[in-house]
Design a protein that fits this description.
The structure is a homotetramer. In chain A, about 25% of the residues lie in helices and about 35% in strands. Chain A is of the alpha+beta class and about 130 residues long. Strand 2 of chain A pairs antiparallel with strand 2 of chain B, so a sheet runs across the interface.
Amino acid sequence: MSDYAFTLEMDVRDYECDIQGIVNNAVYQNYLEHARHEYLKQVGINFAELARNGINLVVVRAELDYKLPLMSGDRFIVGLTMQRESRIKFAFHQDIIRLTDDKIMVKGKIIGTALNPKGRPAIPAELDKLLS
Amino acid sequence: MSDYAFTLEMDVRDYECDIQGIVNNAVYQNYLEHARHEYLKQVGINFAELARNGINLVVVRAELDYKLPLMSGDRFIVGLTMQRESRIKFAFHQDIIRLTDDKIMVKGKIIGTALNPKGRPAIPAELDKLLS
Amino acid sequence: MSDYAFTLEMDVRDYECDIQGIVNNAVYQNYLEHARHEYLKQVGINFAELARNGINLVVVRAELDYKLPLMSGDRFIVGLTMQRESRIKFAFHQDIIRLTDDKIMVKGKIIGTALNPKGRPAIPAELDKLLS
Amino acid sequence: MSDYAFTLEMDVRDYECDIQGIVNNAVYQNYLEHARHEYLKQVGINFAELARNGINLVVVRAELDYKLPLMSGDRFIVGLTMQRESRIKFAFHQDIIRLTDDKIMVKGKIIGTALNPKGRPAIPAELDKLLS
């Protein structure tokens, strides 16, 4: 796990599971988002505060590989690394790993940008510093 | 719109919007899933019934391009086409289109398979027929 | 159904169902909220717009009687009436009714108020008019 | 906090907040449910396992008093006590308490029962023992 810039431990909640008894596809995006926001908060970037100031961090592309399903009772970590994708884009590489056997359940690449109050892409200074 | 095998009209619900006042990323996956299930139901394939019989349609990969955000009050359609991706995989190409201006908000490619009661990939006959 | 001030037709989406194969408890609150917001919009009161202007319609109490569970594929209506509960509170009486047999699935009484930008209860004029 | 039979510490996730920047009403029900299931699991009653065996723990009534809203970044505990409500019903008294100032944000009384595979109310032996 030492290769991630940040890891967050979480557990499956029963309401996140669907008819098939497994975590619903969309819920993994919630897990990934929560881990990204916690990571950003830890490095001093607050998603909610930025939003209140008219600066919106937004996802422009998500690629998700669903390898194995999480189930009720499972405990897992979300590991992530972040890197610059282009001048105005950054990418999170994120893995969801089941704790009982360290298996990767979901692999995600989430590409984002930041929009200023006028809706134009503009990476805020604190994020720019983080990426360089 | 004539190029889609199926379209479903929906509208944004306020609880689907987040702090930024726009539909949360994960919610689009809900929209896409609901449209896929409605399409399958229309062609005689019932996701919930299959699940009760131990046959699980599962997503193995999702690629989502977020182009513009839906907001409170927006009405939209989800258009989809389905095609075979490999012997045991199928792909849905899905667009979310805002009705006021026909702009594409999200483009998705969702690749799925079916797992039999033993958890092995096996396309059920009715789905196999649909794909050929 | 003629006794409701407003009705909204909706259908269960598979992702709203949980491990038990029935709609999860919390989801009914989403249904009820969506119906309230659609009703308010119809009478000229826009929840999202009010929020952007610092006026927040908030729920202060919810009473929900779960009589029968909705399941995948069910179509239903949410019927509602609204009345003044006190000088600064209003109440929605809401029923969720399955369309196949007109059975009441959930009965709700939702009491709300409005908070002005200072966070103090204050019913906006348009809502006040509606309640009198 | 010593009066609760069980407490669970959680934190608000940004995707749980809505247009108003506060946790959406329905989400509190998720928090309360998760705490109930964790409590039951701790005393040897597994909601998901029971469901797989055709025994469904269901909510028949919920009363929720929303006192103050949780916001992005808030950390809180859910405290609960459980008692028998009638021969076939049990009640959870649950508080959601913000950790920064120990203020009660939401108070809930959730009444439930258990349905056997035939759909009839029947409290399973392990739950019966817990309640007596």
